[in-house]
Write a structure and sequence with these properties.
single chain, 6-stranded mixed sheet, about 55% helix
Length: about 325
């Protein structure tokens, strides 16, 4: 959210490659951040605000589903943000505070102790070095990118293409002040823990790492190549997309983070979005069969477009209404 959201080697595609991690796969940002967290020491320091900054306008989109004894809120998130990005609104606060349970893509996105062994098992391939999969120009670009983030090229050489691409997608964002700890889920998770609200996840850590690591080899390489092409300008389009999300511009999110993915690689689109949305819609229907109020926060890409969670629920007779 962002992972292999764009899989063709063009400047426009590469600029949007990170959107899968930023808006689609919550764990991806945390995975990628680990190898480059030292960058936080060299980036311009930004003190985390004591409270979440308020949105300047309408704020991010929020939907609600209701039946006789259940209320379910759907909130689209960005998994990595600058600490100064304003996204809090009264309607989101009220919905969150009213909930008796909180749902994320995974319940423990900050559990690095459990996550890193999975990444090491599924993200490293010393027997097939990256340098053997890239041509001379691409290897030169890889070495230059590695040098710019202070990571030895030899370290990246044992990464599988998905992990190298994800790391290099995130590194410029970290330099620009983006931080997973300022992402919506971790902010809301801390708030839920402080309030004693039960926290649930639609997926497990292993399932999410497996989604990324299970992408076809050619798709992983295309993702890495596109990332290398526009490494120096990675934040430009992301800044625009985050601005659209913070303003509640659902159409822009659909256009830049969903339609492009669907058009360029249907396999990746179905893997990262559609199949997961179908799964989550089923779990939401189970919640509706019970009672109480649930607040669900997942990547914004899952809540826009023809294959969104809301669209799938609508096909099953469940209506989600945007909260204005």
């Amino acid at each position: 959210m962002t992972l292999a959201a764009r899989l063709k080697s063009t400047a426009a595609a590469a600029g949007r490659t990170a959107f899968g991690a930023i808006l689609g796969v919550g764990l991806a940002a945390a995975i990628a951040f680990q190898p480059v967290q030292a960058l936080a020491q060299t980036a311009a320091p930004t003190a985390a605000p004591a409270v979440t900054p308020r949105a300047e306008g309408a704020g991010p989109a929020l939907w609600v589903i209701r039946d006789a004894d259940s209320t379910i809120y759907l909130f689209g998130t960005v998994h990595v943000l600058r600490p100064t990005t304003g996204w809090a609104t009264d309607r989101v606060d009220q919905a969150f505070d009213s909930a008796d349970q909180i749902w994320f893509e995974i319940s423990n996105p900050d559990d690095t102790a459990s996550m890193m062994p999975l990444v090491q098992r599924l993200g490293l391939s010393p027997q097939t070095p990256l340098s053997s999969l890239l041509n001379a120009e691409e290897n030169a670009d890889l070495q230059a990118a590695a040098a710019s983030i202070g990571v030895p090229a030899a370290q990246l050489d044992i990464y599988r293409p998905w992990l190298a691409g994800l790391t290099l997608s995130m590194a410029p964002l970290v330099k620009a002040g983006y931080d997973p700890t300022s992402g919506v889920e971790l902010v809301l998770k801390a708030r839920a823990e402080a309030a004693g609200k039960p926290i649930h996840g639609f997926e497990s850590l292993e399932e999410q790492v497996g989604l990324i690591a299970g992408l076809p080899d050619d798709a992983q390489l295309d993702f890495l190549r596109s990332t290398l092409e526009t490494f120096d300008n990675a934040t430009v389009e992301l800044d625009r997309l985050v601005g659209s999300w913070a303003a509640g511009d659902v159409a822009a999110i659909e256009r830049y983070a969903v339609d492009e993915m669907k058009e360029d690689n249907l396999v990746v689109y179905e893997t990262l979005l559609t199949r997961r949305n179908v799964n989550w819609a089923g779990q939401i229907q189970t919640l509706l069969d019970g009672s109480g109020t649930a607040f669900i926060a997942v990547g914004a890409a899952h809540l826009v477009g023809d294959d969104s969670v809301q669209s799938i629920l609508a096909q099953r007779g469940v209506t989600a209404t945007r909260v204005e």
